[in-house]
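Board notes (copied after class):
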Amino acid sequence: MDKQEFLDKFIEKVIFFGQIPSVRALRDGVILTMPFTIGGSIFLLIANLPIPGYSEFMAGIFGANWTDSLNAVANATFGALAFVIVIGITHRSVTIEGGDAAMASITALLTFLALLPSEIVAGNGQIIGGIIPRSWIGANGIITAIFVAFFVSNVFLYCDRHNLGIKMPESIPIEIVRSFLAFTPALFCFTVAAIVYGLCHHVLNSTFPELIFQLIQSPLQGLSDTLLGGIVIIGLQSVLFWAGIHGPNVVGSVVSPLLLANTWENQQLLDMGQQLLGNPAAHIFTSQISDVFTKSGGCGFTMGFLIASYLVGKSDQIKTVSKVALIPGIFNINEPIIFGLPIVFNPYMIVPFIVAPVLAMIITYTSISIGFMAPFSGMQVPWTTPTIIAGFLLNGWQGAIIQLINLIVATIVYLPFVKMQDRILCEEEEAQKGLEDEF
């Protein structure tokens, strides 16, 4: 098998993976959290704007507890990520197959609630029951939410395909018919939840979310939080995008829940009064590094390409593409470059397209490891926020400096390859002009 055949096979497998209904549902369900995390981040940003003296100024106007209401909104959004994910994935899974997504989503949420611990131990040792434990409806419960979503979705779809349910006469209103059709799969899901809860509680002296967190989520989060894990995640996104596949979507469908969990656990440390800087319990590789610090201009850190093009580009094609792509690139939209140059399947661009974001990830990761920049909290910014501004909002002047360094490094990485591409394009344009002159 030659290189081209291997590449074709690889692309075929990745496309197949990306089109699997469960993978699409997982990706879309996680994307569903975006408006809520960004919305919560706005309130978190107002409460923690990285400007010296800001907090004291606001406290002087609104009182010492001026951040309480803002943090309440932030905690409601970030602290219920598992709720959003279990509903989102279930709804998308069942919708793709044409089932009753609303009933399945409600069932999934109730099944998830049934599996949660029914009591907590207070600081004084008192056992408190009749509560929904906040620690398990947020980041710690994300993997459990994914399992529940797929389980409930498959139960509903199986019953739908095999016509399992209570049938009603055609004269009955459709809302009542839907309710009775959902009764059978819902009852099965609740029964399984009751059995699982009993086994975990009475036999294993634990709960299902706690077991999933200890056995699966915690090790996966630890793996995603390493330098090597970050290199693989960022590099694979670029490799797939270069091959014409939306790498962030494909890779993100797997790793986004873990990175979100890393981010929110950092926020929980802050909420407990701890500092993130120098805290060994804080996660370094979070969603902000993947979404903001390695994607200036878009996937592949193509803002480096744009700057390099303005510095050395002489060919008409490079100049035209750079002009068209500049404004979108400032807001991290790089389709004009990806498909206009193009970068897709361009052998001259594959190296910088992969190396630039990987180096940005290493620089950002290292800056946090050595204590120059604090690990990221739960605050998010829209992915269209321009470079430098995004870094400042997320991590103050240190974040802006790191984004600037990443941009300079990416430009240096792209420069020789842009020169090579530009020289070839100039030769092609000269040859084309010569042919036109002959005619």
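Comment from the instructor: The first helix runs from residue 3 to 19. The chain has a mean pLDDT of 85.
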